[in-house]
From TrEMBL:
Metabolic or biological pathway: Cofactor biosynthesis; (R)-pantothenate biosynthesis; (R)-pantoate from 3-methyl-2-oxobutanoate: step 1/2
Binding positions (3-methyl-2-oxobutanoate): 43-44, 82, 112
Positions annotated as active site in the UniProt record: 181
Name recorded for this polypeptide: 3-methyl-2-oxobutanoate hydroxymethyltransferase
Organism: Aliibacillus thermotolerans
Length: 275
């Protein structure tokens, strides 16, 4: 299994890191089979799996369940689990307990935490305690209420300077990697060049050290909005719809099940049963 040292080395050797979310055993299985470097059990599960319109309702229990399933599906891939909304503020010892749950029960190798500023002591203390922490700056969806929507971040001089400062700070506080979401490519490139730890972009251009996408976006398994930065490598939703339509049609017409999908038994045995 790759680890935090592997990811540092990949950055140093300019080998891009491929990361994608997964939430269940089959998606994790296919990610492992495809050679994914990192699987993120993202709290985007709230939106793409559970049908919420934000990540705010996601709980630690949700994340634990998804992490366990992902672990079983991809036993050999480095798994990072998101700490969900309001689970890494306030009392650090409570956060420690939550992280212990996700790592010891769930099987995650690391956790991801949104934000800089007041979150920095949490990154520092978790790292000190032996927990690899992935930071997340730029568009931080758990702060959608404060940010006022899902928008590109760091486009003004002030916000760009703050983002650069916070990126350096998460590294100084021990983060082993940084996710940069929805920032102009020029700024993302600059930040990646300033840091030793890998910067993994989503909507941050290609001049960073890796990319992450949400599984459902990448395979076209979505029902609603697909962000501009999400490339769809397949149209699984269309394939599924066609399959389900064919099933409905065959059930109605009686074409399914045919002999091929049916069990049978000896007539002799049946006669004995019926007497
Ligand atoms: O939850 C998630 O999927 C994420 C990625 C967008 C980085 O945090
Ligand atoms: Na997330």
């Amino acid at each position: 299994m790759k680890n935090t040292a592997t990811f540092l080395k990949m950055k140093a050797e300019r080998e891009p890191i491929a990361m994608m979310t997964a939430y269940d055993a089959p998606s994790a299985h296919f990610a492992q089979k495809a050679g994914m470097d990192i699987i993120l059990v993202g709290d985007s599960a709230g939106m793409v799996v559970h049908g919420y319109d934000s990540t705010i309702p996601v709980t630690l229990e949700d994340m634990l369940l998804h992490t366990k399933a992902v672990r079983r599906g991809a036993p050999d891939v480095f798994v990072v689990t998101d700490l969900p909304f309001l689970t890494f503020h306030g009392d650090i010892s409570k956060t420690m307990d939550r992280v212990a749950t996700l790592m010891q029960e769930g099987g995650a190798q690391a956790v991801k935490i949104e934000g800089g500023g007041r979150v920095l002591p949490f990154i520092d203390q978790l790292t000190e305690a032996g927990v690899p922490v992935m930071a997340h700056l730029g568009l931080t969806p758990q702060s959608v209420g404060v940010l006022g929507g899902y928008k590109v971040q760091g486009k003004t001089e002030e916000s760009a300077s703050l983002l650069i400062k916070e990126a350096k700070q998460v590294e100084e506080n021990g983060a082993f990697a940084l996710v940069l979401e929805c920032v102009p490519k020029q700024l993302a490139e600059h930040i990646a060049s300033l840091l030793t730890i890998p910067v993994i972009g989503i909507g941050a251009g290609k001049q960073v050290d890796g990319q992450v996408l949400v599984f459902h976006d990448a395979v076209g398994y979505t029902t609603g909005f697909v962000p501009k930065f999400a490339k769809q490598y397949a149209q699984v939703g269309e394939t599924i719809t066609q399959a389900l339509e064919a099933y409905v049609e065959e059930v109605k017409s009686g074409a399914f099940p045919s002999e091929e999908h049916t069990f049978s038994m000896e007539t002799e045995t049946l006669q004995k049963v019926y007497g």
